Amino acid sequence: MAFPTVSAPYGLKPVNLIGGQVFAGATRQMRIASGYNTGIFFGDVVSRTTDGTIIKDVGTTAVAATGVVGVFLGCSFINTVTNQLTFSQSFPANTTVTSGFISAFVADDPDQLFQVAVVSGTTVIAGLQYTDIGLNSALVQNAGVTATGNSRVAILQAATTTSTLPMRIVDVVPDTSYVSSGTTFFAEAIVKFNAPVIVSSVVTGGHSYNNSVGL
User: Fold this and answer.
1) Distance between CA atoms of 100 and 122, rounded to whole angstroms?
2) pLDDT of amino acid 2
3) 178 contacts 129 by C-beta, under 8 angstroms
4) From the CB of residue 203, how many other CB atoms can be counted at a distance below 10 Å?
5) d(C-alpha 64, C-alpha 210), whole Å
6) What is the pTM of this model?
7) Are 23 and 17 in contact (CB under 8 A)?
8) DSSP, res 127
9) Fewer CB within 10 Å: N-end or C-end of the chain?
């Protein structure tokens, strides 16, 4: 029986927590500023800004200096046309509200593990080797899919020991492995946000809950 294939990136998908802890779907509600000018898609990385709201984190080799708060899993708001509560897979850029708040659902546990596609660059699916487990990888920021509301964020195939990279490779996904020139590659990996690092005596990056200068 053939294994399933991965045709394109799909963002960061919560699976479980480190240590084999179960992910029960818990999220934290965080606000998005009315009129924020950037779309946020299901599976995108988000960080906080100075007014306490969240924004899409577009970092690749490094995330926001104050750290990320987690991964966006949809939002809700009062539609200004229908005046009804609306749930959305994504936050469409420039969405405004006149009552209430735009509430994002964020997987914010710093122990959260995510399943993610591996690419050689942009959306071209590639693979890691088993020996890449324990190394670090950069994020690849692709535009989300408006029709589905889903992210296309991925991680880069090139895995290294560079401590400032945002993602730690915890495991690989055997279900979507493939063999090329006699070598087994894994098109998906299990990752978590790396710990903050000290750069020029300043704590930077990582998950904001573990970052002493995080917002």
Assistant:
1) 37
2) 47
3) no
4) 17
5) 13
6) 0.95
7) yes
8) -
9) N
